[in-house]
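Hey L., structure's done. Input below.
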Amino acid sequence: MSTLFEQQQDRPLADRLRPSSLEEVVGQEHLLADDAPLGRMMKTGKVSSFILWGPPGCGKTTIAKLFANVAGLYYEPLSAVFSGVADLRRIFDNAKNRKQLGKKTLLFVDEIHRFNRSQQDSFLPYVEDGTVILVGATTENPSFELNSALLSRCKVFVLKALKKEGLERILQKAESVLGHPLPLTFESKEYLLSLPDGDGRYFINLIEAIEQYGADEPMTIAQVSKIISQRLPLYDKDREGHYNLISALHKSLRGSDPDAGLYWLARMMQGGEDPKYILRRLARFSVEDVGLADPNAVTQAISAWNTYERLGSPEGDLAIAQLVVYLATAPKSVGVYKAWKAASKTAKETGSLSPPMHILNAPTKLMEELGYNAGYEYDPDTVDGFSGQEYFPDQMHHCTFYKPPERGFEREINKRLTYWNNLRKQKKCQKK
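Output:
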């Protein structure tokens, strides 16, 4: 028969390190402190349903379980991945029975975003009448993944990825439970702390892997890297991480920061993003955010795209990196972008107006007699190469949609537009 000490040793390290009180939870003081939202909820006893939104390994499940214990609620855990309608019915029926006996139920739903819309709707009556206190855990943005009806009945609390200080506290507790420090040099310990990307659960698994290796001497970084697998980047290319990182890349380029641009590009590439998606967005950036401030930007974008198509990864990755640096360091202009929006708006408002007769072709005798093409001046044939004629409908005034800023190549465009505008005014005066 094994002793109590041996039974403790057989338990996974994560189970042995699990906090026994909310005060022991690491890194979420902004929610759990006495004057924080969950802390106040516990102090006042006014418990309501809420959603815990945060990255993996930040303590969502632990917080829910400890919260139920402190509040004196029956803890009912459920995984949205492995459960269906039958499971929900059983849980709601049991919760009703407990309610009649004076015992409330805290229903913890892990990965609640995995439930479809109708399944989420099934929670509503039981949350409203107090049959269950719903605590949902999700790694995805609730605004996109949860019904608005359910969200309106639940508070949303955002949990943070663990910082280095929090990971160090976990390491100290682990070494206390193990009864000795991990066999690591200072450098390898710092390396270990850099690996989990804020995921406490993953960090504990790393500690356990090193402990089980049983090294007699302090291990170097090279030795540590051999016995643990590198954590994959926290990135889901089908969900919010996808949109957050492409947004970060775009805004870094708009802010003319090539280093930040390269960083976010590397994050996306390492996370498994499709390079062609990135190239498509960069091509759009070249015309939307750089535009005619540097007309070569779109040429560079298409060239990088073609280069990647021919080389593939990893050789073609450098073409994308080069494009990111080019776009980040190019002058920026939304002159054409704004002009196109303004022109589109005006076109919708005046869509029934015909072009002026002098710019309409006259392929038949009848059309010529009706005045089609009458008075049209062929600009390249004029003295100035510019006729100054009007090209908007007769019922409209001349509109100015394109207003280029004074930077990059658009400085030259501004000179041309100013020259032509002055010529147009002169020619109008001469006709009068």
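The CA atoms of residues 276 and 305 lie 8 Å apart. The mean pLDDT is 88.

-- N.
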